[in-house]
Specification:
By secondary structure, the chain is α+β, with helices and mostly antiparallel strands. Helices cover 16% and strands 30% of the residues. The longest helix has 15 residues.
């Protein structure tokens, strides 16, 4: 999925107060794997907009409302493509309620790390194999590809705890995406790169520790975490049938995982389509 924030603006509904820790200490965590999870108001309004565009892909959205950066409100910018049967929803931290697809989201103040929460969306393909194959592409324009082909580099094993052993990639003729830590859990592939090797290993251990307490969608998936100077840019992608789902978090790999773990079919709340 494209992580760009320059989508076509729209109008009508209004963003509402975000139930984040700090703003609402009593707000329930809703990322348990059950059909009882609830969609936050802003997410619900964004998905209602997508429904009106008659996108054919089965709709899914995160129910976890512990977003970062912490803010009293969140705003949403929605793009729906009926030709490609896809949609993308960008989420922003705001100081006041803003309409869905507000033109303000295209201004400079909403391009900084303290405003960008992340995004989620889906693209439907003609065949399930096409969707699965797209998991393992490395789009050059993405600031956080969900998957990068392992480089030809010096490797060694690394203990990521909780029974997970990964592979360190530390040196190569090409320095792109190095160093890197890669590991597998079930049908999922995980990669952390672009920090020092110690930083990559530390973040990988944090991801593994969280995954020891939560369950990602039970299907094929990929996870890519880029340790950039302004945040841990992270993309998570997975496939159900012929539809590829994704979420992107600007500042935290664990939060990107929480969004994926909490994602449910909209509006039923079912775990998978």
């Amino acid at each position: 999925m494209n992580n760009s924030t320059s989508f076509t603006s729209g109008n009508d509904v209004t963003s509402t107060q975000n139930t984040v820790s700090g703003a609402h200490p009593t707000a329930p965590n809703s990322f348990e794997r059950s059909t009882g999870a609830e969609f936050g108001t802003t997410i619900r309004l964004a998905m209602q907009y997508v429904q009106k565009q008659k996108v054919m892909a089965p709709l899914m959205a995160p129910t976890d409302r512990i977003f970062s950066p912490d803010s009293p409100y969140i705003g949403a910018q929605v793009s729906a493509d009926t030709g490609k049967n896809g949609y993308s929803v960008n989420l922003f931290a705001t100081d006041q309620p803003l309409p869905l697809n507000s033109p303000q989201f295209n201004t400079a103040q909403y391009q900084y790390a303290d405003r960008i929460i992340g995004s989620f969306g889906a693209v439907q393909y003609p065949q399930s194999m096409s969707a699965k194959n797209d998991l393992y592409l490395s789009p050059a324009q993405s600031i956080a590809p969900a998957y990068i082909a392992p480089p030809k580099a010096t490797t060694s094993s690394v203990d990521l705890r909780n029974g997970i052993v990964g592979t360190e990639y530390t040196s190569s003729a090409s320095t792109t995406y190095l160093p890197m830590v890669l590991w597998h859990e079930g049908d999922w592939t995980f990669e952390v790169w672009d920090g020092t090797i110690d930083e990559d290993v530390r973040l990988a251990k944090e991801d593994v520790a969280y995954l020891n307490t939560a369950l990602l969608p039970e299907t094929y998936g990929v996870f890519g975490e880029n340790l950039a100077g302004d945040g841990e840019h992270t993309t998570v992608e997975w496939v159900y049938g012929n539809t590829l789902y994704s979420d992107f978090c600007y500042g935290s790999g664990v939060m990107a995982l929480k969004m994926a773990v909490s994602t449910r079919v909209y509006p039923s709340g079912q775990i998978k389509p």
